[in-house]
C-alpha cells in the first residue's frame, strides 16, 4: 500500500463547546487552531474540523442506514482505520466514557476476506463515526 497523506474533513456541530469536550476529551484528539466558530483536531494524524452551525438539530441527525453483517450501519458516516492495538485502546477509552454506541465494538466478517473490528457512535451533534481495524491493513482493507 502506498504511503498515505492525511485527509481533511469538516463537519457541522450545533455546540462548539460540546464538540471540544467530545473530540478533545472523549476521543482524545489534540486541538489545533481554533476560533469561536471552528476547531481543528488531530484525528489520528488527519485534519478534522468542526464548524459551528447553531441550526443543526442533533435530534434530526441522518437516520438512514444500510444493513451490513446484521447491523444497521448509519449513512452518512466518516471514520478512521486504525492499527488493532490503537483500535482496542480507543474502544476501552470510549467504554470508560460510557458512550452511547450505535453499533457496539465487535468483529465482523469473521473468517472472511476483509475481517475487521468496528464500532460506531455519534458525536453530540448527531454525526455518525466509525472506527475500524484489521489485523493486516494492507492485505485486508480492500480484500474481496
From TrEMBL:
Q: Name one Pfam family in it.
A: Glyoxalase
The UniProt entry, under Gene3D superfamilies, shows: 2,3-Dihydroxybiphenyl 1,2-Dioxygenase, domain 1
Q: List, alphabetically, the PROSITE patterns matched.
A: VOC
User: What's the superkingdom here?
Assistant: Bacteria
Task: Provide the VOC domain boundaries.
Answer: 5-134
- The signal peptide, as residue positions, is none
List the protein's name: Glyoxalase-like domain protein
Amino acid at each position: 500500500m502506498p504511503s498515505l497523506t492525511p485527509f481533511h474533513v469538516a463537519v457541522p456541530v450545533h455546540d462548539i463547546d460540546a464538540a471540544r469536550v467530545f473530540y478533545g476529551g472523549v476521543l482524545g484528539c489534540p486541538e489545533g487552531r481554533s476560533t469561536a466558530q471552528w476547531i481543528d483536531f488531530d484525528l489520528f494524524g488527519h485534519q478534522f474540523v468542526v464548524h459551528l452551525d447553531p441550526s443543526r438539530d442533533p435530534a434530526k441527525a441522518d437516520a438512514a442506514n444500510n444493513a451490513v453483517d446484521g447491523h444497521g450501519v448509519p449513512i452518512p458516516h466518516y471514520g478512521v482505520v486504525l492499527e488493532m492495538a490503537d483500535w482496542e485502546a480507543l474502544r476501552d477509552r470510549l467504554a470508560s466514557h460510557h458512550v452511547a454506541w450505535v453499533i457496539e465494538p465487535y468483529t465482523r466478517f469473521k473468517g472472511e476476506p476483509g475481517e475487521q473490528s468496528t464500532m460506531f457512535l455519534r458525536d453530540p451533534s448527531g454525526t455518525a463515526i466509525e472506527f475500524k481495524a484489521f489485523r493486516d491493513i494492507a492485505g485486508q482493507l480492500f480484500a474481496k
